[in-house]
Specification:
Elements lengths: L1 H8 L2 H19 L6 E2 L13 E4 L3 H13 L15 H5 L8 H9 E4 L7 H15 L1
Antiparallel strand pairs: 1-2, 2-3
């Protein structure tokens, strides 16, 4: 396991460079779409794009988009449930609304495919599918 990890670390710059190239294409498309909010990197940050999250208008639209993409075999994820909404914390009587910004992010966020081997063809299909859904 350590040998695999060490070999992957040797390639980290290449992996990050490719992920940033993929993110740049997503950014160029989605920053023009009013129904999609992207998370912008500011000048004091360097994003390695472990994920590519986008935000849509509300939870209902996010769920519909999630299911639409799933029908097209585009697997997405939703990140991250606010900690106090996990079952353990429910027992401690933490109430919904404790962190409205975290809840808003969770309700509207969907992470679209982002991985080193994502081809331009597949990325274009993902983009096209999201744009079709938003029409």
């Amino acid at each position: 396991q350590c040998a695999l990890g060490i070999s992957q670390l040797k390639k980290i710059d290449k992996f990050i460079k490719k992920r940033r190239e993929i993110a740049k294409i997503y950014d160029q498309v989605f920053e023009k779409i009013k129904e999609v909010e992207i998370i912008k990197e500011n000048k004091d940050q360097f994003n390695s794009y472990h994920l590519y999250p986008i935000k849509v208008e509300n939870e209902k639209i996010r769920l519909k988009l999630f299911n639409y993409l799933k029908l097209k075999n585009i697997l997405c994820q939703v990140h991250y449930i606010p900690v106090y909404r996990h079952p353990y914390y429910q027992k401690l009587k933490y109430k919904k609304g404790l962190c409205p910004k975290a809840e808003d992010f969770y309700n509207r966020e969907i992470s679209i495919p982002m991985y080193f081997s994502l081809s331009k063809k597949d990325q274009n299909f993902i983009i096209k599918s999201i744009l079709e859904f938003l029409k």
